[in-house]
Amino acid sequence: MAFSKILTASNFLSQPRCGFLRFFSSWMTPPPTSHCHDPILTTISEAIKVFPTTPLDSSLKRILPSLTPNHLIDLINLNPYSLSPPSLLSFFKWLSSQHHFRLSIHSYCTVVHFLCANKMLADAHSLLQFVVSRKGKNSASSVFASVLEARGTHQSNSVFSVLMDAYTDSAFFSDAIQCFRLVRKHNLQTPFHSCGYLFDRLVKLNLTDPAWAFYEEILDCGYPPDVCKFNVLMNKLCKEHKMNDAQKVFDEIPKRGLRPTVVSFNTLINGYCKSGNLEEGFRLKRFMMENNIFPDVFTYSALINGLCKEGLLDDANKLFMEMSEGGLVPNDVTFTTLINGHCANGRADLGVEIYQQMLRKGVKPDLITFNTLINGLCKVGYLRETNKLVVEMTQRGFKPDKFTYTMLIDGHCKEGDLGSALEIKKVMVEKGIELDNVAFTALISGLCREGEVSDAERTLREMAEAGIKPDDATYTMVIHGFCKKGDVKMGFRLLDEMRRDSHFPGVVTYNVILNGLCKKGQMKNADMLLDAMLNLGVVPDDITYNILLEGHCKNGKREDFDKLRSEKGLVQDYASYTSLIQDFRSKEREKR
User: Fold this and answer.
1) What b-and-e string marks burial along 315-328, b requiring 16 or more CB atoms within 10 Å of the CB?
2) Are 406 and 439 in contact (CB under 8 A)?
3) pLDDT band at residue 560, thresholds of 50, 70 and 90?
4) Which of 145, 368, 467, 579 has its CA 20 to 30 A from that of 319?
């Protein structure tokens, strides 16, 4: 099998029949180097010169049993016939595919040196990555020593860079770092490009702590500092809510002779605002202005977003005005942030005003802007304005998405407009948009509110069939709907279904069924359910006992009604309740 196929990235490791794969595990120690006038070298060289006209299998068949890894090493290092690098690589590929030929680690490393010296870095990388894959983790010291030992007539500093990249691409990051340290230890040229590549991989994989430690180490070794790398690392740390570490990275920028950019400040300001530390965010804004770095739209947007999340809308509006008066034009993100702040605080009307201002300034809203405003309007019940906005949204070329439809369903259900909600659901199904947990729950809630409990139960089944597990609250809504209609039996069925589906119904669910039993006068069943609750570890609350006392009041003797009613709100545990009911029942028996 051709070694060229093995060197490709996609199937390099998937050739189990290759000679060098089969025998790689038993690395051979090479014998002493043979002379350059070895007749075998001459035969090999002659065969390579006439290849591919004459296949190597036929021209070297006679001497193949006599070939050793050392012949390959001599051929590469001495190259008595000045063969071209590609032709020597072809010979290596052919030799490695011979089933009965064993390559040594020394021969692999010799070929790697040769490839690097001839700028064939991709082939060298593939070969070293194979070596690394066979050696595994924690092999950097031994492989590095083999590469160092194999330096012959072909020497290139890039070989250690390629080795470091091979470990990085294999995700053996500690080995890659060890390679860097070994290069430093042997006073070799530091592979800064590979250092940057390793740092980028660590950051990309969110390994921020080792990335920062490694970056500091290579900076101390002369790696040229780059403010962009500081910014990227800060951004990752901010997203992980490691604000103290992000601040340390920021503080390191001037220590390395660099000047923080507006992106540096914005990254840290945004991190502080999202973590709720507005004081630090505004301190950084003042600090950047003192250093003649002027806040941009992103700076203000981050601060405005932080103020809105804290409900400080007056301050957010003032900052928005400061931004506009300073000559900065708010973008769609800034406007949407402010709209969301007002809507989240129940002031959808102010959100609409900001939206109108946005249009007057020529800033085009996007789908997020429309969804933010639609959500705010639905929450306060402004359905007419919502429907107008949906029309405007489509006229501007935006199609309602899953989030849009879900908000509309929820809004219409909460306002009792079940018909419109069901029509929207129909549109979603026609468009192939799957309903989510919020949409199903809103529909179930609306149906239960309108007394359509059978439809609510069917929707519950649809929800489960769609792969969405209803939560306890959703089940309880449907149980309440059936109990309210007097169908306590169906309530019990759903309770049993909850248990079978690994739910653990709480006191609220049991209270709903208890209330249904009491309203039907089934006090014996109610007391039995109370006992079942206690056996299952569900602790009754004061509402539980009030429901039961109300049931006994309504289903007991008229003269005892006032006594039991006066106890409501005072009975808060099982012992008090049973004592009161037993007293009530014994007096009833005495009267008989």
Assistant:
1) bbbebbeebeeeeb
2) yes
3) very low
4) 368
